[in-house]
Design a protein that fits this description.
By secondary structure, the chain is α/β, with parallel strands linked by helices. It has 14 helices and six strands. The chain starts with 6 loop residues before the first helix and ends in a 12-residue tail after the last helix.
């Protein structure tokens, strides 16, 4: 969710859902203890005791490969107000993997063990330490060894994205592999991948044998997806989504990324059109526009688009 799930998006999504907690985009750790400003840049909610405006707790995510520096930066994250620390062993980006970060570490369960163990030792038992992995790099042959390493290193929670790095984001997600790990290990496991609807969530829970879900791209495509799954709400209607888009635009234009406003709005519409055909029409209408006033004018008219939702089941 790098470049997508920033503080503004977290603010909007937690305002319409009852999330238990949110994970930030990752903070890249290389060979030093980063200054506090780097933590605040990734998680400005630290200035609010680590909560969104809707009082959803934030957990900072770190990505790196050097155990000692990961541990020192994890301690700093907690000191600044993060509600736990999450370790990223799942990022499939080539630039990250080339520099020994993210999913490439799935090839070396022993390295994952050293990182998790060192961070947990530094944080102590009173701080929640979680990790996110994929099923493996090329295949799932090391999954059992990876989960064993994380469990033995005393992590508290584990999220498993039910695809390998080689799979990327191509469907399907192989939730049954998660179920095998749930049956074998005591660690609290969260299932992730290809959860776009209530029906997907129910199938995932049945196959993964865990009630714990982590939402990613599905939460962008259907902004109240967590409430649909958790609180049995109806899918957000288009006119309500239009209000959310206008709010997003207003906040974006007053923020420090206003220069990229049109690109960021189009990026979100690419996800929304998975669930809403109206989002495709809106995307087509604004894709050649760069003038902010013209885009805002179209947003104000967008609620009049055909109102029949097509939501995946």
């Amino acid at each position: 969710m790098e470049g997508v799930a920033d503080a503004l998006m977290r603010h909007l999504l937690t305002s319409v859902n009852n999330y238990d907690f949110c994970i930030t985009e990752f903070l890249r750790i290389v060979d030093q203890l980063l200054p506090e400003r780097c933590f605040y840049k990734v998680c400005p909610e630290l200035a609010q005791q680590g909560y969104t405006q809707s009082k959803t707790p934030l957990r900072m995510q770190l990505l790196g490969q050097e155990p000692n520096w990961m541990a020192e930066n994890a301690v700093r994250a907690i000191e600044l107000g993060s509600h736990g620390v999450d370790l990223n062993f799942g990022c499939p980006a080539k630039t990250v993997n080339k520099n020994r970060g993210g999913a490439v570490l799935l090839k070396s369960p022993e390295d994952i063990y050293r990182i998790v163990s060192k961070v947990k030792e530094a944080l102590g038992n009173d701080v929640v330490l979680s990790a996110k992995i994929r099923l493996g790099f090329d295949d799932a042959s090391l999954l059992d060894e990876i989960v064993s390493a994380i469990t033995t290193a005393n992590a508290d929670q584990l999220t498993i994205h039910a695809r390998t790095k080689a799979d990327g984001y191509r469907p399907p997600a192989y939730w049954h592999f998660i179920g095998d790990m749930v049956k074998k290990y005591q660690i609290e496991i969260f299932a992730n991948g290809e959860i776009w609807s209530l029906a997907d969530a129910n199938r995932c829970i049945a196959e993964s044998h865990t009630p714990n879900l982590m939402l990613g791209r599905g939460a962008l495509a259907l902004p109240n997806l967590a409430a649909v799954i958790k609180d049995e709400q109806q899918s957000m209607p288009w006119n309500q989504l239009c209000s959310l888009l206008r709010k997003y635009s207003e906040l974006e234009l007053t923020g420090d990324k206003s220069y990229y406003f049109s690109s960021r709005l189009k990026q979100w519409l690419r996800y929304l059109k998975i669930q809403y055909p109206q989002a495709q029409q809106l995307f087509n209408d604004i894709k050649v526009l760069k003038d902010k006033e013209q885009i805002l004018a179209l947003l104000n008219k967008s609620s009049t688009y055909e109102s029949t939702n097509v939501i995946k089941t």
